[in-house]
Amino acid sequence: MTRRTALEPLTGLVVDRDGERRARPELFDELLAEPQTRILPLWRGRSLVTAGDGAASLDLIEPDRQTTALVRVYLGRVVETGTPVIAVTLTDAAAAELEPDESRWAGLREAGAVLDERDYALFVEAVAITNWHESHTHCPRCGTPTVVEQGGWVRRCFVDGNEVFPRTDPAIIVRVLDDAGRILLGSNAMWENNRWSILAGFVEPGESFEAAVIREVHEESGVVCTAPRYLGSQPWPFPASVMIGFEARAVAQGDVPTTPDGHEILALRWFSRDELWAERDDLKLPGGSSIAHAIITEWYGGPLDQPPPAEGHRAA
Ligand SMILES: [Zn+2]
Predict the structure, then answer these.
(1) How far is CA 71 from CA 128, 132, 149, 179, 219, in A?
(2) Do domains 15-135 and 169-300 have the same CATH topology?
(3) Are 126 and 75 in contact (CB under 8 A)?
(4) How many Å lie between the centroid of ligand 1 and the Cα of residue 138?
(5) Which reaction is recorded as catalysed by this protein (predicted)?
(6) Domain segments of the chain: what residues?
(7) Are strands 169-177 and 241-250 parallel, antiparallel or unpaired?
(8) In angstroms, what CA-CA distances link 182 with 173, 176, 270, 275, 291?
């Protein structure tokens, strides 16, 4: 089972989140009594990963090896096997006790590109929901510490009954093209030298994704674009985002001038496919597990480490 790229259509779920079961009062006792159940241990955002030949897999452990958990979340069942999986966050001491043999603690950014679809889905779900628990421990109304309910998917305040649900912060990421089909790439102030990617930014309250695309592109580049078209999305729990991918077209014709905002974006450039190929040794582009990589690759028409396919063999 290989993991699809972020832009391939979702053909089915690999993890059934089993939302109905979350409400059962004895949920964790029931799950831990099932011999099939596995634990996905998390320690400081990392999990146990065994690396092999260009691939890697999560080490899901048996419940009897579970030690003191800070937070438990029922992630759901693996569709293919029916295996229920519980994510547990561990203290430093508990993590040290696990003492993996072949595996080691690895982060999602590091392991994401080499995990298969099932393990990637479990890891990203576990990191996203436990990040939320870490930063939402108190009631936003009255400040009382909240308790975890619904298998880890709700926190409740016992003073005022307020239920707090997990949140995800949407961010748009956009491939802007000019009338010659060139792609607009920017170099971010926080990145190393000569690293380029497509533009991105958070959706603001009360804003549609499409409006956010047009606003962000204008703010970061001065380019007026139109007709945002949805491409695909990717959860990005660093710490709590989902990236929503778009393509948009510059309104102006010819060589569209660009103005970097000078804060987030320091340099901007339109690249043809041939330029991207010719300058490949000098350009650093987004890593293979990111939607930015998938969006650029789809425009390029093939793998970025090979010459661009001839026109007519491209998607658009
Ligand atoms: Zn409260």
Answers:
(1) 13, 11, 11, 51, 40
(2) yes
(3) yes
(4) 8
(5) a 5'-end NAD(+)-phospho-ribonucleoside in mRNA + H2O = a 5'-end phospho-adenosine-phospho-ribonucleoside in mRNA + beta-nicotinamide D-ribonucleotide + 2 H(+)
(6) 15-135, 169-300
(7) parallel
(8) 17, 8, 6, 10, 19
Q: Could you give the CA distance from residue 174 to residue 316 in angstroms, rounded to a whole number?
A: 16
Ligand 1 is a single-atom ion; what residues have CB below 5 A from it? 139, 141-142, 144, 157, 159-160, 162
φ and ψ at residue 199, rounded to 5 degrees: -80, 150
CATH number for the domain running over 169-300: 3.90.79.10
* Alpha-carbon gap, residue 316 to 35, rounded angstroms: 50
Note the CATH number of domain 15-135. Answer: 3.90.79
Per-residue pLDDT of the chain (316 residues; tens, 9 = 90+): 456 677 887 778 999 999 999 999 999 999 999 999 999 999 999 999 998 887 889 999 998 765 667 899 999 999 999 999 999 999 888 888 887 667 789 999 888 888 999 999 999 999 999 999 999 999 999 999 999 999 999 999 999 999 999 999 999 999 999 999 999 999 988 888 889 999 999 999 999 999 999 999 999 999 999 999 999 999 999 999 999 999 999 999 999 999 999 898 999 999 999 999 999 999 999 988 889 999 999 999 999 999 999 875 565 4
Taking the centre of ligand 1 as the mean of its atom positions, its distance from the CA of residue 161, in whole angstroms, is 7
Q: What's at 29, amino acid-wise?
A: D
